[in-house]
Amino acid sequence: MVEIDFSVYENLPKYKEITTQSIYVSNKFEKFHPEGIYSEQIFGPLENNRCQCGKTFGKINNGKRCEHCGVLCASSDLRSKTFGKIKLPEGIYVLNPIFIGTLSKTFGPFAVKNVLNKSKYHDNKESPYYFSMEKFKIVKSSRLRDDEEILEEYPVFDISSLKRCYDKVIELSKENEKLKKYIETHINNPKILDYIFLNEIPVISPSSRPIIKINNNAKSIPHKISTLYIKLITNKKNISDALFKENSDIFGYTVFKYQEKIMMIYDEILESNFKKKESYLRESLTGKTVEFSQRAVIIPNPALKPYQIGLHEESVKKLFLPEILHFLFNKFQEKDIDGVGLSVVEFIQKTYNMIGHGKKLEIPNGLFLEFLGKYINKLDTVIERQPTLYMYNIVAVKIGKVFGDNDIPKLNKDRIKPQFEADIKNSITKTLENVT
Ligand SMILES: [Zn+2]
Q1: How far is 178 from 105, CA to CA, in rounded Å?
Q2: How many whole angstroms from 17 Cα to the centroid of ligand 1?
Q3: Helix (H) or strand (E) holding 219
Q4: In angstroms, what is the span from residue 72 Cα to ligand 1's centroid?
Q5: What is the pLDDT of residues 311-329, one digit of tens each?
Q6: What is the CA(140)–ligand 1 centre distance, in A?
Q7: Looking at 5-14, 41-50, 212-221, which range is the least confident one?
Q8: Distance, CA 49 to ligand 1 centroid (Å)?
Q9: For the chain, first and last CA: distance in Å?
Q10: Closest CA to 407 of 276, 303, 251
Q11: What is the mean pLDDT of residues 66-71?
Q12: How far apart are the CA of 27 and the centre of ligand 1, in A?
């Protein structure tokens, strides 16, 4: 059996509530909305020991909440540990997806499945289920004996009525020994009883559902889980009218909608726990193939813009080998440069020699600079920063600077020399091993 972490539910009253579907304060994608799904006020600061407005910072202020922006001056690790919550409207409960199995075992699997089926709603309303005090299951009214003892006041036809009936059964089980035993054998941990139905939905920490900014902050892509949470909040805004029509079909259907969203959120969380982070990377970056990858130490450089990265020229030559070859091929076709255009075979021979000797692409400096001048703004690089706890651990960046060995005089050149990897296929890995 899967171990369930009850602390998430036990601490629900303490979690701060997310109340708006807006992610940012403005459409400039800069400040996270204080009440939104990535809020620094709710989940902790983006930067270590620095509040959102920047007025409270430094180790001295660690643990202090900024009076101006309300963000705690603390470690940004908080963003990987802190939960939030979304409160459903008063009196509306959904079934906790984790415990549907437990409730099904107790009340009868087929019946519970039927009650949760939106398309059976009308049928169930006309001919509801009742809890049988003899079978300890919910039974369709048409299948009950005339003299069967049932909880007549608690017909079950949708999620809300299921909750009312469930509460009554739990209440009765405190006095009815037989029922008590029955519940105990089916629900082995008494803690579960309090969390089978939820009015507050836990929101997992932002680090486990990162948001990605691309194209110089022109676009921002929230994780699928965040999008689902946002949909839940949007749904909530639509409910106030429906609430007034309690007992009406709109009410019943609205709760079904919630239930669907919450099932989707739990599914997605479960799935993303199993999914490798790479698959998320691919999915979020419009499915581009990562051709070559490289491992290196990231050193801060204030001269670069936040969306830029500096790369060693050797890195550029290897990471963008296909682009460079394409450039060269076009170049060699220009008659005014080389006199005659090369055939493909000749081109391959020529570039093969370029790679062959120094075990790296020996492209003449002038040509390399020309390549950079033409393509540098078009080359997208994806960096994945370890550890994965940091919010922007996967970002797409532009190349802002290409440096050579002479630009790193104070550092041990051998240690800073990039190590290469290629993912995709073994054949490429092999080729690269030969090259490097
Ligand atoms: Zn502040």
Answers
A1: 17
A2: 20
A3: strand 219-222
A4: 8
A5: 888 888 888 887 888 888 7
A6: 58
A7: 212-221
A8: 11
A9: 49
A10: 303
A11: 96
A12: 21
